[in-house]
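Components:
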Amino acid sequence: MAQPAHSSTPARQEDSLLARTVAAIRPPDETARARAYERQGRLTKPAGSLGALEDLAVQLAALAGVCPPPMPDPAAVVVFAADHGVHAQAVSPWPQEVTGQMVANFLAGGAAINAFATQAGARLLVVDVGVAHPLPCPTADSSRFRDQRVRAGTADMTCGPAMTRAEAVAAIEVGIQTAADLTASGARCLLAGDMGICNTTASSAMVAAMTGADPSVATGRGTGIDEDTWRHKVEVVRAALDLNRPNPADPIGVLATVGGLEHAALAGLILGAAAVRVPVILDGVITGSAALIAAALAPESLTACLAGHRSAEPGHALALQHLGLRPLIDLGLRLGEGTGAALALPLVQAAARALREMATFDTAGVAEGSA
Amino acid sequence: MAQPAHSSTPARQEDSLLARTVAAIRPPDETARARAYERQGRLTKPAGSLGALEDLAVQLAALAGVCPPPMPDPAAVVVFAADHGVHAQAVSPWPQEVTGQMVANFLAGGAAINAFATQAGARLLVVDVGVAHPLPCPTADSSRFRDQRVRAGTADMTCGPAMTRAEAVAAIEVGIQTAADLTASGARCLLAGDMGICNTTASSAMVAAMTGADPSVATGRGTGIDEDTWRHKVEVVRAALDLNRPNPADPIGVLATVGGLEHAALAGLILGAAAVRVPVILDGVITGSAALIAAALAPESLTACLAGHRSAEPGHALALQHLGLRPLIDLGLRLGEGTGAALALPLVQAAARALREMATFDTAGVAEGSA
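Structure:
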């Protein structure tokens, strides 16, 4: 069996960016939550008639510590791109080069997330945190692309750990720094996206490790594989778990052994957003498995998390259930890139806008029901 | 038993606006549908990975008769407001005056639909097609408000027909004309909304009449009534159906006996949109029951219909199932006003934008999967 590193986590080193970020994450503001709940009841609508969006707006108030909450606008989608050594195990029909080619496609404006981000009025930032091949996009400016490559893809998790603990922490801190930079430049809502051929395989391993689910339950068909490839993928996930034995009480270890560099960066993005009380809209199973890590490192970071959608990947439903998150959209998407998060952004903004802008029964001169 | 009018429907009078509109509704364009389906497979994403949004964009192409379809933008929300004589049967805790008060609230910008329409970038038009009380908003301009009152609320359907067939047709034609005017002034997507105290009661009766469901299955809690009021509401719906005996093969008769003026106008809006091949996003149970009428008058009008959401009203799920429509959003909303439609608008626009703007594998230089 490969030997995972058992050094103390950098989260315990009080001067690390990760440790400082985790320490900065505060519980939700219960006073703001109560005020938001009470305000929902005075707005010109039957009580509870906006369904889950009422709870969402209340959560935004509790996160921000003020009622009504600030508008989650402007918003920024971050796509962390990275490759996976487990590609050598033939778990995907796509060549590994597609990760870098899709980064170029993002920068050229041709991908689904470009269309969805444009529609939602959100900016798009692509961060290379671990692409294996040289990127064909050297001229992109730093407002759209950042080279923060920690290593050129992970190692094959069926032969040993995917990366070192230090590399996992470095990738987490790329995510934390990205959240800090974007919110410092004005973003009031972050959307979590990913690109990485084979990253559903790593996600399934992470979900299995963090929730205890069997690999056959946590593993799906990714971009659309056939039955034989799916059975093989399940066994690959099982082999990686058997070899590395990740411990759910050691989330950095889970990332290092069976995770991905984009998963680590996404966990960091969540922690970084939570530390500055800005909401982060999750996407599918890749961000869902990253949220399991973030929640294990800092449970209160979940206050900042909104589940944009439920993907077709079975591991995603497991992750959402484990986290207690209700998805806003459930339309069978299984693309990643932050597409499910971008679709949900207008719903999040509508929920906040209603709590901010609607009239109350007394100010509008509308009679209240006697029920 | 009250005597419903059995005159020939105006739809058979070839010169009526309703008859001309029904005659103008064409089947979907199967060539455009096939081209859109084929194009979905060439875009830089795994086949099918945008889930239900891929089907939606294909439907928009089939409706418009061109691939890619035009952007469903700009969009206009129409709220038809009317009152219901069945209010006398104490089926709602809200005073009837609230219908008019909410119209004033819409025009002052204080309602949920104002916040949601603003968020979605859609204009809002309120049409009084049958409010019972004088409206406190005489100064509103015609781009925001129209007085098209057919009568001052329906009659109590437990004592006889809610309105005459001629009034039902007149209200349908208000909806048709509204669709014609809005699309002539540039709207490329219509959103169907309603306001009317007690209109879930009429909707339940319509759903029961059109689908054959028992009133106890088709009737919900509306704005939030208690168990006793719900039982009473079910018996009121049952009494109206027993008295009027609406025939699902005579949709005008269903509207006239147990419907509402806003239901009629909404059915007309759907027919008017379908006639000019512009999509219409439905809202909850009120627009859902109106769509049952539109589909019975012109089955091909369903090509123009997109189900914005599934409301908490049980009659809405029955209507969607009967129409074969899959809702885009399912968040427990039960407000009406077009709120569920407005939330879905960005999803519809994102679906169209992806099919219009995404790169194909060959143009983007992205390798395709071998699966």
